[in-house]
Amino acid sequence: MRRHERAARIQAILDEHVPDPAIPLDHRDPFTLLVAVVLSAQCTDARVNQVTPALFAEASTPQQLAALSVPRIRHHIRSCGLAPQKAKALRALAEQLVTAHGGRVPRDAAALEALPGVGHKTASVVLAQAFGVPTFPVDTHIHRLAWRWGLSSGRSVAQTERDLVRTFPQQRWNTLHLQLIWFGRTHCPALGHDPDACPICRWAMSGARRAADQRRRRAARRARGGRQSAAGRGAGPSGKSS
User: Fold this and answer.
1) How buried is 141 (Cβ within 10 angstroms: 0-12 exposed, 13-18 middle, 19+ buried)?
2) What residues have CB less than 8 Å from 223, skipping those under 6 apart?
3) From the candidates 86, 121, 163, 213, which is the catalytic residue?
4) Could you list the residue range(s) of the whole structural domain that residue 42 is in?
5) Is 16 part of any domain?
6) Positive/negative CA dihedral, 129, 131, 132, 136
7) Is the pLDDT of residue 191 over 90?
């Protein structure tokens, strides 16, 4: 099956299973979406959605966020991964939006990527979901799906993005990005994955990729087990670190 034929079949299955995908991060406008996407790095969307209501109640504009201290921002986002770094980045981001962009989120990839804490994927998500600009944001999860389904070599996230934009029609990129996120969570997770139970993997995943995926998952389980064992050895009788 050629790649474009494979893509057409995958697109039809995604339309069937995820016909109307929602943006998984709660937000009010381009600025609050930008903040939420920055917070989502190495943190689940569910966790971000738990911390942003209190943060946005106090600071829902660049001007308000720039007026907060870094410790105050860190207080709101402390349960997110990399909270100290993200607090500094968010305050600097807000300040730059005020001083360089009149308090508005720029509708430009280069300007977005120049903001503190904003990389290519974050900029792409904001352009796609806040402004409707056709982009195909690729995170590690979409990278995994594209490799499993034979849509990309899996060499790098950047290569996967290039492969996907060449494969799917531009008018579908923004929706497909969201469909892939939701489908991956419900049918094609990183761990506990059963290719035969997945509506796409059962026919799109080659034998070689099934074997390689199984090796990766075994290695990930061993790594997690090693970390848990190390944590156990570091605990005293009270359960506190010795």
Assistant:
1) middle
2) none
3) 121
4) 30-131
5) no
6) negative
7) no
Give the amino acid at 155: R
Catalytic residue among 86, 139, 163, 213, which? Answer: 139
Residue pair 51/27 in contact by the 8 Å Cβ criterion? no
What pLDDT is stored for residue 236 in this prediction? 38
Structure tokens at 122: 């974050």
Question: In this predicted model, what pLDDT tens digit does every residue of 8-17 receive, in sequence order?
Answer: 999 999 999 9
Helix 140-148, helix 207-233: angle, nearest 10: 140
How many domains does the chain divide into? 1
pLDDT tens digits, residue range 132-175?
A: 999 999 999 999 999 999 999 988 999 999 999 999 999 999 99
pLDDT at position 233, please?
A: 56
3-state secondary structure of 161: helix
**Beta partners for 241?**
235
pLDDT digits (tens, 9 = 90+) for 72-113: 999 999 999 999 999 999 999 999 999 999 999 999 999 999
Domain presence at residue 122: yes
232 CB burial (10 A radius; 0-12, 13-18, 19+): exposed
CATH number at residue 91: 1.10.340.30
Residue 121 is a catalytic residue: yes
Spacing of C-alpha 6 from chain mean position? 24
Q: Judge whether 88 counts as a catalytic residue.
A: no
Residue 156 included in any domain? no
Query: 59 lies in a domain?
Result: yes
- Cβ neighbours of residue 100 under 8 Å, at least 6 residues apart? none
